[in-house]
């Protein structure tokens, strides 16, 4: 069974407004009736108070005459008679108001309007409803001493039966019940008049409320664009991530709440589409960046390791080059010393060279002489050969001459051989003198070359120091780059996680014509880059002993 709140929630805005109007009108009507009844009650109270005041006046008159009788001015019966006469003469409301009295035996003792009933029993009188008003008055007075009695009675002048109320009070000293009454006609007329006026005012107010509420409802409907429940349902669907347009949904006015919700839903749909695509692109890019950073980090670490090895090798090369420079400097010193010695020997060789040149000139002359001797020996040999031929022709006579010719020929051949040996010795001497002169020049050239080598070695040592410093800086920068690459890789992985989380959140929304974004594949864990151990440095080259350069 539905509760009133649930039933109220199922009502449309128009039904709710009409319900409010009905409740307002009912409330105004109830308030009007209550107000009129309260006014009537106040009038009734004023009426009964007025009746009580008149009865109290009668009691006061009775007390006054009774006191006078007690004072001996007259007897009790006379006092009662005079008191009743005075009370009977009391009038108000243009003579329509009066007092009457009965005793406890229901005998009418005083009544200005019914003088023929005085002294008669009135206990059996009743109104048309059967109410015995005198008996009720007696019962009320005997119970409380005073009170009200309601009944209906013909109204003088009209004979119309009208409601009437009487107030009575028991005056015990004389056993009299003084009473007076009044009709409700005026009160009821005032009540009806006031009720009609208030109902008219309430109707006008209700009509004004209806107009205001109707205009407000119309303005609200125009502002909302439809039923608020529809707006609530649309907002709830948007809050639940459902951005799809229901089938048959009309296009609402742009200036209405529902139109704004439609535009918001369409805008959110576009934003969600873009964010979903963007999150997928960012996730893919972050995954690629993370992978690239991991590769770059590994390569940077490998490069850092290689640079460390290069730095170690450069340090070793620097040490070797410094040793070479020191050895070259030492060799330069030795070469300079050798040059000095060579220059000294050069002076001697220069003087010897002059002598050699003189010897060479003499040798050339000797060569010419030796050549002449060689030619003479050749001619002598020919002559000896001819002489031998002639001696052979002469036979026995020329035998001695042949022997002489043979000896001459042998001498000529020996002279020619000696001349050749002399020529060879002279040529050898000349060649050695020229070689000695060339050796002095070679020593100078070697000294210059060694000096150039020493200078180049020093320059090479300085250059290698700079290269070594640069390699060291490159190693430091590479290490920093490796750390930055690792940070970038971590940032890329964090960005990928954020992109995946964003894509996961975007899957909360359901958009028109497109399913939720597919979950991005989880990024592969980044490979841990292990730094390659730096190769152990080779032992530094041992410096060459200074004595080894003595044989250069």
Structure, described:
The chain has 552 residues and is of the alpha+beta class. The protein has 2 domains: 4-220, PAS domain (Beta-Lactamase, 2-Layer Sandwich), CATH 3.30.450; 265-551, Helix Hairpins (Orthogonal Bundle). The protein has 8 helices and 5 strands; from the N terminus they run H-H-H-E-E-H-E-E-E-H-H-H-H. It has a 5-stranded antiparallel sheet with strand order 2-1-5-4-3, with helices on both faces. Helix 6 runs parallel beside helix 7 (257-394) and helix 7 (257-394) packs antiparallel against helix 8 (399-506).
SSE blueprint:
Blueprint: H1 4-9, H2 13-70, H3 76-88, E1 99-103, E2 108-110, H4 133-144, E3 146-154, E4 161-171, E5 176-183, H5 185-224, H6 228-239, H7 257-394, H8 399-506
Antiparallel strand pairs: 1-2, 1-5, 3-4, 4-5
Helix pairs in contact: 2-3, 2-5, 6-7, 7-8
